[in-house]
Design goal:
The structure is a homodimer of 108-residue chains. In chain A, 67% of the residues lie in helices and 0% in strands. With 108 residues, the first copy, chain A, is an all-alpha fold. In chain A, helix 1 runs antiparallel to helix 2 (45-65) and helix 1 (10-40) crosses helix 3. The model of chain A has no long low-confidence stretch (mean pLDDT 93). Chain A has helices spanning 10-40, 45-65, 73-82, 96-105. The radius of gyration of chain A is 17 Å and the shape is elongated. Chain A has four helices and no strands. Chain A starts with 9 loop residues before the first helix and ends with a helix.
Chain lengths: 108, 108
């Protein structure tokens, strides 16, 4: 599947951008909820370092996850679908070929 | 001041080890209190990354701070005194020359 060949209409780009914002908001909310809950249950220093390790991994992941460049957009969306941060129904309006590619990517 | 020349009696080593444990327990308690408080007040993702940055710095600092080797013990204790994690009164029982060296080190 050659990402660079995928053409995005203005309307499709808006749909994708909105979906990315929705997924990001969900992910951030879940992350903040998790941090609050973990922190409230801290009992020993190892719990603090575990939280630190967790944040290091999440930060690295989130930093590279929301790539809006057109040539990466299908991969970005497929990852968010795999992570259950988006549902395919939220991408209605994308051309059938893109939805088919996404269905394929999330099974890979 | 040549650290390697400092001789520690068995009693002095016990005093120093106890002081290090006391300081460590205080530091860890303060750190856990801070993390709980910060986490309960998270409002946006930048607050999470600030907490992560803070934990990275504290972990690095704490990892290297409690050096119990005799040749480093005066430096270790002086740092804990500077950081207000110990008080000189908690080091009573150390020989006068060590207490004098510590008084000097914490003013450096």
């Amino acid at each position: 599947m050659t990402q660079t060949e995928t053409q995005w209409s203005s309307e499709e780009k808006q749909i994708a951008e909105k979906a990315l914002k929705t997924a990001y908001a969900r992910e951030i909310q879940m992350l903040m909820d998790y941090v609050r809950e973990s922190a409230s249950g801290l009992c020993e220093i190892q719990d603090v370092w575990q939280l630190h390790d967790f944040l290091s991994a999440r930060r690295h992941d989130i930093d590279g996850k929301y790539d809006e460049r057109e040539s990466f957009l299908l991969f970005t969306l497929s990852k968010l679908l795999q992570d259950k941060l988006l549902d395919l129904t939220e991408l209605e309006g994308l051309a059938a070929d893109k939805r088919a590619k996404l269905s394929l990517l999330i099974r890979m």
